[in-house]
Structure formats: C-alpha cells, structure tokens
Amino acid sequence: MAVTTFAMLFATNDFVILACSFLTGGIFATWFAFIFSIPKEELKEATTQIVTWAMSTFWVCTFVLATINSQLIGWSVDLTGGFTVGFTYVFALMVVSPVVALIIFPKEIVKEELRTK
C-alpha cells in the first residue's frame, strides 16, 4: 500500500495515479476488515449480540473517520489544486495509525488476564 501511495505522490501520468488510487483503496479495504474483526472467544462472556454491537460501533466510528478524512483530502485538493498535500496526509495517517493502535488496543497480557478470570 505504501508503494502505491508513493506512486500517486510522484506520478505524472493520470492513468498511473488513478490505477494506484484504486489499488490503494482495494488493499486498504481488504486487510482492514480482517484485522479488526473480534472473535467471540476473545471477549469474556460474550454473546453474539455483544460482538455484533461491538463491531457495529467500531465500523460506524471507522466510517465516520474515513468520511472526515476523505473530505479533508478533497478540501486540500480543491485548495491547492494538486494531490500532493492529500497524498502526504494519507501517508501520514498510514504512519500514525499503527502507533495509535499500539497505544489504544489491549496488549496480549491483558487479554490473557481476561481469559483466565
């Protein structure tokens, strides 16, 4: 995904930019759902309804943030007349997101403690 994002940043051919944008979106959409699906066994005393509510809340928040980011990127393209600022913003999000995820999501030790209780 980083390769296609860099290609969008530095390409001059509109077809290459368009193709890389579709590839980036496809790659992002494919792995995103698999990483953030919560198996029922991971939650203590979870029912199907609890997992459904948890994942629904997660996806609503995710799509709200994605919409806000898309609007910011579109606004930057309109403001600057180019894609460089927008793609730089996307690349910054790709770098910052895993760091934030490491801070926010529970660690394996916490998961083990929840399983044994």
UniProtKB/TrEMBL annotation:
It is found in: Cell inner membrane. It is a multi-pass membrane protein. The chain crosses the membrane at residues 15-38, 50-74, 86-105. InterPro entries: MFS_trans_sf. Keywords: Cell inner membrane, Cell membrane, Membrane, Transmembrane, Transmembrane helix. The keyword RNA-binding does not apply. GO terms for cellular component: plasma membrane. Signal peptide: none annotated. This is Major facilitator superfamily (MFS) profile domain-containing protein. It comes from Salmonella enterica subsp. enterica serovar Panama.
